Amino acid sequence: MLYVVIVYLWAAILLYLLLGGADFGAGIIELFTSPANKKSTRKTMYRAIGPVWEANHMWLIITIVILFVGFPAIYSTMSLYLHIPLVIMLLGIIARGTAFTFRHYDAVVDDMQEIYNKIFVYSSFVTPLFLGIIAGSTVSGQIDTQASTFLSAYIQPWFNWFCIAVGFFTVAICGFLAAVYLIGEAGSEADRRMFIRKARQMNIAAVICGGIVFVIAYAQGIPLIRWTFGNPLGLAAIIAATLSLVLLWYLLNKGKTKILRILAGFQVTMILFAATVDHFPNIVVLKNGEYLSLLEHSGHEKAISVLALALLLGSIFILPALFYLIYSFQKKSSASGSGIA
């Protein structure tokens, strides 16, 4: 049952990165779009993510619940020593959702619309930035459970060059996913070519940021290179991600939108797999060299069994409903000459 819970945890993190990340990326794309193209970008983005954007946060909720119930030691450590970036990330989610709603459904159209737009795009940038910072801090070895000062306990674990680099890499990944997903939603050839260009730009940014992450990790003594390339499975995943990237660039101008989305999702999946497979089951690296393990620091056996059963039963009801929601809006959009991501 423990491995069932771990699989659900990894899948929830991956799906939040793929689906929620694409939603955040839509705001990032808008942030880096010229004023002349912002209106058409907003229309395309809203048509794509408007119907289902709230559902994507389900994966974050599932992740939190699994950690809280199944791995209380890991949950308490992260929520204590990383409470500042966690709060900033959650505030970003709230601000983004509020701005997204009000800028489309506000009864009065006035100067507040511009404020809503700014809140939306900047919170879309800040939220994945701190999501990446939190992810980087779990493996940076900077969390010190014996810290005696506020700075060393609650600032240094996440406010360092490695975590910030991982944050920017996450932002670039989200922008890349959104651009690829939105190619098929463009209402005109000009918009389609704009999203293709954005996909290339974000992909280049992700490659550069990823390289910076490895350089900083090496400089700070974080064995990221060994974790990624030292494991045969990790190396195979990196090779697969690279090959899919080459194929994706080749197909960008071919109009094969479904294949492009699959390739983008596959590439991100392989990157996440390569970054985590070698140090599994260790999920948090502490400053004293110890680890918090998904196997050794799990909750009570009965709690794990009940959690696994709840996840399995919940999937029977939640997943079909989610797929039907997406299908319904796809069918509705297709009838009006457009689709959703």
TrEMBL record:
GO molecular function, one term: oxidoreductase activity, acting on diphenols and related substances as donors, oxygen as acceptor
Location in or out of the cell: Cell membrane
GO biological process, one term: aerobic electron transport chain
Main localization of the protein described in the UniProt heading: membrane
Transmembrane stretches, start-end: 6-32, 53-74, 80-99, 119-139, 159-183, 204-227, 233-252, 259-277, 303-327
Assigned GO CC terms: cytochrome complex; plasma membrane
Entry annotated with the keyword Transmembrane helix: yes
InterPro entries: Cyt-d_oxidase_su2
Keywords assigned: Cell membrane, Membrane, Transmembrane, Transmembrane helix
Pfam family, one: Cyt_bd_oxida_II
Bilayer topology annotation: Multi-pass membrane protein
UniProt record similarity statement: Belongs to the cytochrome ubiquinol oxidase subunit 2 family.
Name the UniProt record assigns to this protein: Cytochrome D ubiquinol oxidase subunit II
Organism whose genome encodes this protein: Pararcticibacter amylolyticus
